[in-house]
Amino acid sequence: MAIIAAINLGFVLFDLSYVPWRTFYFRNLPKLTQVYDPVKGIEPHRDTQNYLQVVNRLQNQISNTGLQSSQVKATLEDLKNLSVEMIEENPFASASKSGTLEKIKNRMRAHIGDDSAKEAFRIFWSQEYLSKQSFTKEIGFFARNIKPLIASNYYRRIGENGEYIDRFWLYDLPIVLLFTLDLIVRSYFIKRRHSSFSWLNAILWHWYDAIFLIPAWRWLRIIPVAFRLDKAQLLKLHGLRRQIEQGIVANFAEEITQMVVIRVIDQTQQSIHNGDLTRWLKQSRSVNTYVDINNINEIEAISGIVVKATVHQVLPKIQPEIVALLRHSIDSALNQSPIYRNLHSLPGMGEMQTQLSEKLATEITTNLHKALVSAVEDPVAAQLSSRLIQRFGESLGDEIQRKKILTEIQSLLFDFLEEVKINYVQRLSQEDMEQILEKTRQLKNQVSVPAVVKQNSTLVEMRKIK
Which residue range(s) make up the domain with 225? Predict the structure, then answer.
C-alpha cells in the first residue's frame, strides 16, 4: 500500500503541474499532451490552429503553383489579416499566455527590423519580401521561432458549473475507493482490539489516511504517503519527525509554563488584594480558606523532626570538626592578646596553650550538646520555647497589622509579584525551549544507554551459561 500511495502522489503532483507546465510538456513530450489534454478539457485554440493551417496551405500552394501565383497572393493577404487579428484580439489571453504573444511580436519585429509588429507581419507575408529573401529561408525562420509558440496556445473548456473541465477525479476515484476500504478495514480491527473505542476513535487512530478521502487539496497526500513509507522503512523520517515534534512541544511547553506561572502569581496577587494576608496574620481559622486535612501543623512537626535528628544524630558525628574549629578560634584569640604573647616566651607555655585550647573547646562543645539535648528532651523547655516563638509571632503579627505597615507590605508584595511575572515571562520568551528539550533528550539517552548495555551483558552471560 505504501508503494501504491507513493505512485498516486506522483500522479497527483503531475496533474497539479500539468496546466502550468503544459508548454514544457508540449515541446518535449508532445505525445503526452495528446493523451492528457482531454483529461484537463484542453483542445487546440481554433484561431491559432486556423492560422497554422493557412500557413500549411501557403506552403502547398507555393510547391504546386510557385510564389507569384494569384492563389499564393490571396493566401498571403489572408495571413496578413490573420496576423493583425491575432495581435489585436490576443487569443492567448484565455490560456494566460499573453507573454507568448509578446514573444512572437518581439521576434518578428527583430527579424524584419520594424518597430510595429503589425507592419512587420505585413512585410513578412508579402510576395516581394519572400521573393527577395528566399521563401525557403523565411519559412524556415517561421517554423523554428514563430510556429512552436503559436502551436503551444490552447483553449480550455468550461463546464456548466462555471469551472474548468477537469476529469482527473475519474482516474483518481479507484485509488480513493481503495484507501477508503483500507481505512475501514483497519479501523474495524482497531475497534475489535479496543472495545471501548468508538468508530470515530478507531478512524482517528490512522487520521492521516483520511486525507486520501478529501477531494480538494490533493497535494496534502504527501502526509499519509510519508507516514506509510516511514512505517514500511522505505524512507527515513525519524529525524524530521523528531524536529517537528520538538517544535510543537517547545511551543506548547512555553505557553503552558507561562500560563501556570502567571496563574499562580495572579492568584497570589488576588489573595493579597482580598486581604488574605491580614486574615492569615490574625490566625483566624474561621474565615481562613486554607484547608487543613489532619489538624497538624506540618511546619512545626517537620521542624521538630529536623531539630531532633540534628541534636541526636548529626552533632555527635561532627563533634571532632566542631572541636577543631573552636580550638583554632581560641588559639587565634590568644595569639592576638599582647599579654599572652609576652607569656608565650616562657618555657612550657606553648604546650600548656595547646592543652588549654583542646580542653576548653571540648568542654564548650560537650556542654553545648548537653544543653541542646536537655532543651529538646525537657518538656518545660520545649513549652517555653514554643511559647516564646508563639509570642514572637503574635507580637510581630500585631505590629505588622498596623494599617500603615500592612498597607505598605501589601503594596510592595503586589509590585514584587508583578515584577516577577513580567521578568519571568520575558526571560522565558528569550530562552530557547528547543535547547531545553534537546538537553532533556540527551539526558534520557544517557540513562537508556547504560540500561541497554546492562541488558546486552545479561544476555551474553545467559548464553554462556547455556
Answer: 172-237
